[in-house]
Design brief:
Layout (H helix, E strand, L loop, with lengths): L23 E10 L8 E4 L5 E6 L4 E3 L8 E6 L9 E6 L2 E6 L6 E3 L2 E3 L1 E3 L5 E4 L2 E10 L5 E3 L13 H13 L7 E5 L5 H12 L5 E5 L8 H6 L16 H4 L4 E5 L6 H13 L1 E2 L8 E2 L3 E6 L3 H6 L5 H7 L2 E5 L9 H11 L1 H4 L6 H9 L5 H16 L11 H4 L12 H16 L4 H8 L3 H10 L9
Parallel strand pairs: 3-5, 14-19, 14-20, 15-16, 16-19
Antiparallel strand pairs: 1-2, 1-12, 2-13, 3-6, 4-5, 6-7, 7-10, 8-9, 8-11, 11-12, 17-18
Helix pairs in contact: 5-7, 8-11, 14-15
Length: about 450
């Protein structure tokens, strides 16, 4: 079943429904098939299910047999290391369990071989070389079984409900060039990729012109953006069209717009308001027809409040605002992103496969540099693996020991409170991460991710 933007729904971290009709419940994600990472991911809603059979099949499938008991689901994967009847999941009251069905290679949860295991939110179930993700509370609107493999819009695939909704709204807004779009998100979250998709949705026929506002020399910002005539200033030896006019009939992408000097902000505002640009030294303006998309990793509301960014320009560029969440908040999308990255690098990397231990590390890591970091790690690991499955040893040591670039030390009030609560629990349980995980009803790996994010050292509480 093909997943569309309108169908794709997921995790609402706040626990609140996105709309009044949003279903909330447990879900099982086929996160990644180690032998077929290009197959991406599927999501299977479990709110109407009480038993799940997991086993090998000739192709990936999800069946709800008419003759079976009400609430049965059969999920099959073409994994040669899986048994035909590998494991079962069963719901007892409000608790989900997974039990190995005497499979040849066993069933692992978070890397540990288990016979039976009570599942908590975030648990990774490893069957053969396939890795499944259990989530206890996610949005379940749309079809019960969502398959991302068949969608044509691979750049806008997500299981995250609010993100899917924003992208659907962007698709509707994009053709109206009078509504400028502002994308906010950390570095590496894919702001330019989304801007290019918006350009496609807008239907413009001209070029996509990307401008890194933070990289423009302070004394040349306006000449680079708006162009200049010969002799307008020292060094202006030729007429220059400028980046804005180069995007005429197309899309102008103003990346890191918060870095634009205040003096240039006023000139840009006039261009956007009047839809015309006057090169430096010119005596007449030139009309421009543009789809304008801006982006920044900074908080523009705070920049406006502090006077670092003009409020009138902010109002002009923020006709519609879209937030791209960091990768650490999109773990269900990890298989989608990996499949997309590998598909684009297939000529260089060839057929890439994964051992479950590597997938386990990819899920556990917080990805402070987001999708850009994921792409670099995958490409490097694939080259080191030399055609063999990517294993843990092929991943960066800084990633494995948690010494890579950490998230910003400045925490929001909510994050600071969460960190304080985590410290209390670690002190209570003498640094026993498993005990903390049991008390809060989360996977052990989730506690470890939080500890990395908040720079908490386990040995200090033992």
């Amino acid at each position: 079943m093909a997943a569309t933007i309108g169908q794709t729904l997921v995790d609402d971290e706040s626990g609140q429904s996105a709309t009044q009709s949003t279903r909330i419940g447990s879900a099982l994600f086929v996160l990644l098939e180690g032998e077929r990472p290009g197959a991406m991911s599927t999501r299977h809603a479990l709110d109407k299910i009480s038993n799940v059979t997991l086993g090998r099949g000739s192709s990936r499938s999800a069946e709800r047999p008419a003759r079976a008991k009400v609430g049965d689901l059969i999920v099959r994967l073409p994994d040669k290391r899986m048994s035909s009847s590998h494991a079962v999941m069963a719901k007892v009251r409000d608790q989900w369990f997974v039990e190995d069905s005497n499979s040849r290679n066993g069933t692992r949860v978070n890397g540990e071989l288990v016979k039976q295991h009570a599942l908590v939110d975030g648990d990774l179930i490893e069957l053969g070389r396939s890795v499944l993700l259990f989530r206890s509370r996610v949005g379940l609107d749309g079809p019960d079984d969502l398959d991302c493999l068949q969608s044509s819009d691979t750049d806008t695939l997500t299981f995250k409900a609010d993100l899917a909704r924003s992208w659907e709204e962007l698709r509707q807004i994009a053709p109206s060039k009078d509504i400028a779009i502002l994308i906010n998100g950390e570095s590496g979250t894919g702001k330019e990729v989304l801007a290019r998709q918006i350009a496609k949705w807008s239907g413009v026929r001209g070029d996509f012109v990307g401008v890194n506002c933070g990289a423009l020399p302070a004394n040349l910002v306006e000449s680079e953006l708006f162009g200049s005539v010969k002799g307008a200033f020292s060094g202006a030896e030729n007429n220059r069209v400028g980046l804005v006019r180069s995007a005429n009939g197309g899309c102008l992408f103003l990346d890191e717009i918060a870095d634009l000097p205040l003096s240039s902000q006023a000139a840009l505002l006039r261009v956007l308001q009047e839809r015309e640009v006057t090169p430096i030294g010119a005596t007449r303006p030139y009309p421009v027809d543009l789809r304008v998309v801006s982006a920044t990793h900074q908080n523009l509301d705070q920049a406006v409040a502090s006077g670092r960014f003009r409020h009138d320009l902010f109002a002009r560029i923020a006709g519609f605002r879209c937030h791209l969440p960091p990768l650490r908040e999109r773990k269900e999308d990890l298989g989608i992103l990996i499949g997309r990255i590998l598909a684009r690098s297939s000529d260089e990397l060839g057929n890439v496969t994964f051992a479950p231990e590597a997938v386990r590390e990819l899920v556990a890591y917080d990805w402070p540099l987001n999708i850009r970091e994921l792409s670099n790690v995958l490409r490097t690991a694939a080259l080191l693996a030399r055609g063999e499955p990517i294993q843990r040893i092929h991943l960066p040591q800084t990633m494995l020991d948690g010494t890579s670039v950490s998230v910003a030390p400045d925490l929001s009030n909510e994050q600071a409170e969460h960190r304080a609560e985590l410290l209390v629990l670690l002190n209570k349980h003498s640094g026993n991460v498993s005990a903390v995980a049991r008390e809060v009803g989360k996977a052990r790996t989730q506690i470890q991710r939080w500890m990395k994010r908040y720079a908490i050292k386990q040995e200090e509480y033992r």
